[in-house]
TrEMBL record:
Pathway: Glycolipid biosynthesis; lipid IV(A) biosynthesis; lipid IV(A) from (3R)-3-hydroxytetradecanoyl-[acyl-carrier-protein] and UDP-N-acetyl-alpha-D-glucosamine: step 6/6. This is Tetraacyldisaccharide 4'-kinase. NCBIfam families: lpxK (TIGR00682). It catalyses: a lipid A disaccharide + ATP = a lipid IVA + ADP + H(+). It comes from the Bacteria. GO terms for cellular component: plasma membrane. It comes from Pasteurella testudinis DSM 23072. HAMAP family: LpxK. GO terms for molecular function: ATP binding; lipid-A 4'-kinase activity. The keyword Translocase does not apply. Transfers the gamma-phosphate of ATP to the 4'-position of a tetraacyldisaccharide 1-phosphate intermediate (termed DS-1-P) to form tetraacyldisaccharide 1,4'-bis-phosphate (lipid IVA). Pfam families: LpxK (PF02606). Its EC number is 2.7.1.130.
Length: 331
């Protein structure tokens, strides 16, 4: 919502509700801390990758990067997710690269395809972890989101922050985009800043795109080869403008931009109407996982890869130490 990124009359009208939201969340967190509400300790180290604000911070690309990096270190990685936007009603459920994103959600399928990690979804994160442990040999669990899910104990917390939008107008929901106040960052293990203006205490991450991939044929072409070709860009992600700006930075001829709500569902008819015979349709990889079953020959997606500063090695070492200590405890 645009008013979340400025202070307006609506902001101040909603401020009492934001204060109420703060009070409820603070009481809830305190109840978990002192044991009035019970939390569950998983048998494996749990790494939470979350955010303070709603949507579009670059959390999913970082989860993919982290899963790959830990696999390179020899760890067997499991990822849990709520499965937002999926129509599935029975949980928990394992997810693989060929799972139907309409049923299980677009982000879990994307993570499975890009990382090769073992994935399970459920609104109850304990159920997901127990299913992964039953089905596979896992060394570490990555939780895609869940920073505020205090019913699950965690060993390491990572917060991803958008470098441009930061914390919006600084207000909690519904007056602003925040789920918790920025002071919460003082208690996490690492802050990943997605963009070029990371602060001294943050680890910079940038999302890089070099190619476009055809949804129908899987042909890869460098973005530089599209030249003056007329392109219609669509995005159904938390921050669509990030995708549109990235295409502009590559000097592509974007003649129209179409932003949808995050996790929006598509049909062949809806997308075909966006372009004419001379235009190409460009979309994010997250959107593409929902469209491969009815793709047209002029539809392309642009995969992005997270690139992080060397300071992230400290986070990797901390995770490795947690896995080692857990292994020694189990011997």
């Amino acid at each position: 919502m645009n008013f979340w990124y400025q202070k307006s009359l609506l902001t101040w009208l909603l401020a009492p509700l934001a204060l109420l939201f703060w009070g409820i969340t603070a009481l809830r967190r305190s109840a978990y801390r002192i044991g009035l509400l019970k939390s569950w300790k998983a048998p494996l180290p749990v790494v939470i990758v979350g955010n303070l604000s709603v949507g579009g911070n670059g959390k999913t690309p970082f989860v993919i990067w982290l899963a790959r990096r830990l696999q390179q270190q020899g760890l067997r990685v499991g990822v849990i997710s709520r499965g937002y936007s999926g129509e599935l009603k029975q949980f928990p459920q394992l997810v693989c690269a060929n799972s139907n994103p309409v049923e299980v959600g677009d982000e879990p399928v994307l993570i499975a395809r890009r990382s090769g990690a073992k994935i399970a979804i459920s609104p109850n994160r304990r159920q997901s972890i127990e299913l992964l442990c039953k089905a596979y040999h896992i060394d570490v669990i990555l939780s895609d989101d869940g920073l505020q899910h205090y019913a699950l104990q965690r060993d390491i917390e990572v917060v991803v922050v958008d470098a441009q939008r930061r914390f919006g107008n600084g207000f909690l929901l519904p007056a602003g985009p925040l789920r918790e106040l920025p002071t919460r960052l003082q208690n996490v293990d690492a802050v990943i800043c997605n963009g070029e203006t990371a602060r001294a205490e943050e680890i910079q991450m940038q999302l890089q795109a070099e190619v476009a991939v055809n949804l129908l044929t899987q042909e890869e072409r460098p973005l530089s080869e599209f030249g003056a070709q007329a392109i219609v860009a669509l995005a159904a992600i938390g921050n669509p403008q990030r995708f549109f700006t990235m295409l502009q930075q590559h000097k592509l001829n974007v003649v129209k931009q179409k932003a949808f709500t995050d996790h929006a569902k598509f049909s062949a008819e809806k997308l075909a109407s966006l372009t004419n015979a001379e235009q190409m349709l460009f979309m994010t990889e997250k959107d593409a996982v929902k469209c491969s079953g009815f793709a047209r020959e002029n539809w392309w997606y642009v995969p992005v890869d997270a690139v992080l500063q060397p300071e992230v090695d400290g986070l990797i070492e901390k995770i490795m130490q947690q896995v080692k200590a857990n292994g020694e405890k189990g011997e």
